[in-house]
Amino acid sequence: MDGKKLEYKGEEALKEIENLTVNPAEVQESILKDILTRNSETEYLSKYLKGSKDVTEFKRHVPVITYKDIYPYIRRIANGEDSSLITGHPIVEMLCSSGTSGGEPKLMPSIAEDLDRRTFLYNLIMPIMNQYISGLDEGKAMQLYFVKAEMSTPCGLPARTVLTSYYKSKHFKCRTHDPFNDYTSPNQAILCNDSYQSMYCQLVSGLVHRQQVLRLGAVFASALLRSISFLERNWAKMCNDIRAGQLDSKITDPECRSCMSIMISSPDPSLADEIEEICSRSSWRGILCHLWPKAKYIEAVVTGSMGQYIPSLEYYSDGKLPLVSPMYASSECYFGVNLKPLCDPADVAFTLMPNMCYYEFLPLGENGTLLMQLDEEEEVPNDRLVDLVHVKVGSYYELVVTTYAGLHRYRIGDVLQVTGFHNRAPQFRFICRRNVVLSIDNDNTNEEDLHKSITVAKNRDGPDVTPMDAVAADDKTKSSSSRPRRDKRMATAKRGLRSLAVAVSIPLSMTFFDIYFSGSSEIYGARAKPFWFPPLWILNLSYLGSSFLMGLAAWLVWAEVVRNSNGTTISVLNLNHISRRCFKENGIKELHASAEQTMQSL
């Protein structure tokens, strides 16, 4: 990528967006030709192209793949083989995906210039925001950023998350001063590997600058809510630090202590009292607006699975701060930006920047109907893919990318819906991850249906209910398999037998107790009873009473075993049944009605 584009700010950045979206087909063709020129001699592409750099040959012969297809090459590179297995550039690190969608984290190859592309996309965010909110250069941003511990591959390549990679890069650490990105958090606090110390120092920094903060946020909504929860537990300590002008002794990281000692070098009891008065209120509704009264919006990803946190963020902001999802990115590649950042979270759509990678799309349904008929393991015919400029409004697609770092026609796993166009570049709404997030009785439920089902249940219980978490349980009365029921019967039977053993052991022990003191002198010899020991008839009555009660308890436990084995327990919300009916009969549009009908039948 042209290094000059990394310096684009303000109007220059907006002009670049217009230039890229006016003729995305031309940009995309140029990107693919450039990738093939660099990567055609790799071991992977040579199998299919025999050294050819022709775009038509690429589309005809290179297969559509998933992670399991590319993983053997990634493993070989991680073990020390040359990057030329898949890319013409040296691979400098492996990026770890979160693993939240498909289970195990994945390793994605990354080359040096990928950081340029990520920085380019980051630099577009504030020029877009400035079109809607003015004066953002007159204060600070309390953006809570965190790194995660990194590992190394057997050959010594760093293996870390894409965010950790960016925060540790010179692009972030050595960035020039930008009044639109003046963070309250010192770099030392952001880069601290200890999550407690990092969060503590960043929140103290945000509180110290509370009257200067113009925007709040974290990368993901979940991270921001964790920070609020952390503040709720530790605000008293933070007030003490500000009041005394001295950092808490639990903060032991030398760089954190060094930068924070400058920030709170002198006592500020009035500021501490202000914060204490706000945080000690009985309700934390609107706490973000009270602590940071000049904040104009919250920046965090609230699409996809993060959508479940919207009600909580609205509670803590009292609905007064817009929720902004600025960009769409993944470990594989950064993709696009939200050109209408103040839209409702449900209407967020991202414009894919055609210079980031080469995009193709696997059709999954049209006219508002999503069909998940194509399994991840199933081979995809090459002619089924659609180019960026040929997608249709209202249709659903799975994103397929070809990157400079060596992913060729790789299925990302994200399901997108086309909502419109900016110039000639399509805009997409993120629907869900294709990978399974919930599997009950061999029926799979994706994250959007799961979230919508919980929302339906919440609405059913009334407007004052705020969902904080959810648990899904299978309903065995609808199971076609007898194996889980047998397993359940065996487990509960074992519990019943243990209870029965306890019921028998107690009266038996009392019997031995009786024998010991009342005495069979032939066996035990004569023993003197202590003066406090009760008469024998009281012991016998105790024995009979306890035997009766324990026997009754054992019988009740066994009755519970039989009841459970007959499968009469009812789950609170049969999400499994809802999603099955939604996908196989009605499609996404009928989800709410299907959920409501199912719950009425419970």
UniProtKB/TrEMBL annotation:
GO CC term (a single one): cytoplasm
Region of interest called Disordered, as start-end residue ranges on this chain: 458-492
Ranges of residues in domain GH3 middle: 350-433
InterPro entries: GH3 (IPR004993), GH3_M (IPR055377), TspO_MBR (IPR004307)
Record Pfam families: GH3, GH3_M, TspO_MBR
Stretches with biased composition (Basic residues): 483-492
Transmembrane segments: 496-517, 537-558
Record key words, sorted: Ligase, Membrane, Transmembrane, Transmembrane helix
Source species, domain of life: Eukaryota
A GO term, aspect molecular function: acid-amino acid ligase activity
Similarity comment: Belongs to the IAA-amido conjugating enzyme family.
The protein's name in its UniProt record: Putative indole-3-acetic acid-amido synthetase GH3.9
Species annotation: Tripterygium wilfordii (Thunder God vine)
